[in-house]
Design goal:
Elements: E1 3-5, H1 11-14, E2 17-19, E3 35-38, E4 63-65, E5 78-84, E6 93-98, E7 103-107, E8 117-118, E9 131-133, E10 142-144, E11 146-147, E12 154-156, E13 164-170, E14 173-177, E15 183-187, E16 191-194, H2 210-215, E17 272-274
């Protein structure tokens, strides 16, 4: 895919740059059978009505699409009937028509087009869009939608343009390098989809105006140094001033930028071979 710029008929369009999806995204309404109601919006507020997540609120109404992360229909071929836009994720989604008549959405892999046939299971070919156990995928193959436990459904490498890579195999586990560069041991019975997630150009999108950000449900962010000291640790001072402390802090006084938040004795630490912070 390439990027698309618009004729500057207004200030908001002048700096707008989008992914050119002409000929890729299928026009028309989504599959009604696979819609699961409207995405619930909280505005960042908890059960007490207090803001627990800042900078959230408003936005357009979004319908939730049911995505098949498990790829559990083994041995049944499916035809890609459409590539569609999903309002709650950066990646596009692909509509599959299975041979037994069932329809399901999956995350659209890069290079998979309408009309192609996909399948999941041990006997599937190592082809982009097919889902196989890690034991049957060759070392060095890019994969996405990787399971952490057999049968639970894909949890890793699901964002647009991301892909994990199988580094090695030994015994019951495969060493997989994740998009964060973390290397983790994963049970070789876990399913993964071959290939990279589509729409890698999304990072080059320029919204063009603040209103598009508000349509996405994202409210403005205010710098801590612009606040008064009662609202943020960085606030206060005469004129323009720095944060006045060795390292930045959250509005609640906790350290940021490098502060480790993962529990030291988390159960899955033993599966991590290389931490994502070590390059």
């Amino acid at each position: 895919m390439t990027m698309r710029t618009r004729v500057p008929t207004s200030p908001g369009v002048r700096h707008r740059r989008d992914v050119d999806t002409r000929g890729i995204i299928t026009k028309g309404k989504p599959e009604k059978y696979l819609l699961r109601g409207v995405v619930k919006k909280t505005g960042g507020r908890n059960a007490q009505g207090r803001i627990s997540v800042r900078h959230q609120g408003g936005g357009e109404k979004q319908m939730l699409r049911e995505i098949d992360f498990k790829r559990s229909k083994h041995g049944i071929p499916a035809k890609v009937m459409a590539i569609e836009y999903d309002p709650i994720r950066r990646a596009n989604i692909a509509l599959l028509y299975y041979a037994d008549g069932e329809k399901r959405y999956i995350i659209a892999p890069l290079g998979v087009n309408v009309g192609e046939s996909l399948i999941s299971g041990k006997e599937a070919d190592v082809k982009s869009g097919n889902a196989l156990p890690l034991a049957d995928i060759p070392v060095g193959t890019p994969i996405h939608n990787v399971e952490l436990r057999p049968g639970k459904g894909g949890q890793l490498a699901r964002g647009a343009g991301t892909a994990a890579t199988i580094q090695s195999k030994e015994g019951q586990y495969a060493a997989v390098q994740l998009p964060s560069k973390e290397i983790r041991l994963i049970d070789m019975r876990c399913l993964a989809t071959v290939g990279q997630v589509g729409n890698p150009e999304w990072k080059a999108v320029s919204l063009g105006k603040a209103g598009r950000k508000r349509h996405m449900g994202i409210r403005p962010s205010v710098r801590g140094v612009a606040m008064h000291p009662g609202a943020h640790p960085h606030g206060g001072g005469e004129g323009r001033s720095g944060i006045g402390m060795p390292s930045p802090k959250t509005p609640w006084g906790k350290p940021t930028l490098g502060k480790k938040t993962r529990h030291k004795r988390k159960y899955s630490n033993r599966f991590i071979i290389k931490d994502r912070r070590i390059h």
